Description:
Metallo-beta-lactamase, Chain A, four-stranded mixed beta sheet
Amino acid sequence: xxxxxxxxxxxxxxxxxxxxxxxxxxxxxxxxxxxxxxxxxxxxxxxxxxxxxxxxxxxxxxxxxxxxxxxxxxxxxxxxxxxxxxxxxxxxxxxxxxxxxxxxxxxxxxxxxxxxxxxxxxxxxxxxxxxxxxxxxxxxxxxxxxxxxxxxxxxxxxxxxxxxxxxxxxxxxxxxxxxxxxxxxxxxxxxx
Length: 192
Ligand SMILES: [Zn+2]
């Protein structure tokens, strides 16, 4: 991967070391999201129970049902679970972690989730791959890679209504995020 910066290195300007990270809110099992679990050895991983069950099980019965999932990431999250450090989120959930709400329905993967985070006066919604780009929002278009386009679009609408302002719905893969919010380091913006 070109210009890859390992996540612990990306966090370093905040003075946060790999072992300081206590919780990872994992939106789905694709390699470009789950691939860094092993870099944060002491963290608890929060994942949808259905996502975990599917990609540690039935998804591997057919060649066509685990695209984008790296077997090493599956082994890593199973290992983390045997250490008692995986928390299973069951559907929409705003009780398990103070200030955090999880939501499903994007169907980017089997049970991909989005995350709402209360930051001061605002609820910021991190769509992750349930909404790749600002263009999805502007054109009211489902993402190309979803198991259910109707459910994806309804979930985009729900994420937009949950965010305290439209600008606080953050797409998963749009570099424009780095133009729309103030930088506190070269690769870190403050969402406020
Ligand atoms: Zn993905």
